[in-house]
Design brief:
The chain is mostly beta strands and 69 residues long. It is 0% helix and 38% strand.
Length: 69
């Protein structure tokens, strides 16, 4: 069975969050000031958020170095 993603967008706050699981976790800063990653107690990425989504909507993708491993 495929896993479901949870996607939240707050238009007023211009905030997007995507979660891969309901597992408990916490937000951690990344090298991109617009992106936060949600990690679990095992330091695995279980989601992410983007602040200022509409300001970042260009033809270029957003990157942050932590996923480049």
């Amino acid at each position: 069975m495929a896993k479901a993603l949870k996607v939240w967008y707050d238009r007023e706050g211009d905030f997007l969050e995507i979660l891969f699981t309901d597992e408990a976790g916490y937000m951690r800063e990344t090298s991109n000031e617009s992106i936060m990653e949600r990690v679990n107690s095992r330091d695995e990425i279980i989601g992410f958020s983007i602040l200022g989504v509409s300001q970042n909507s260009t033809n270029k993708p957003l990157y942050y170095a932590e996923l480049a491993d």
